Amino acid sequence: MSDFMDYKHAISIRYSCRSYLPDKIEASIVEKLQASITDYNLLSGLNIQLILNNGDAFSGLSKSYGMFSGVNNYIAMIGRSNGIHEKEKIGYYGEKLVLEATEYGLGTCWVAGTYNKDACVCKLGSREEIYCVIPIGYPAVKKSFKDKLINTVVNTKKKPVKDFFDSKNNIPDWFLEGIKAVQSAPSAVNKQPVKFSFTDDTNETLPSVHAWITSNRYGTEQIDLGIAKLHFEIGASDVDWEWED
Ligand SMILES: Cc1cc2nc3c(=O)[nH]c(=O)nc-3n(C[C@H](O)[C@H](O)[C@H](O)COP(=O)(O)O)c2cc1C
Question: Which of 39, 57, 145, 233 lies 20 to 30 Å from 206, alpha-carbon distance?
Answer without folding.
Answer: 39
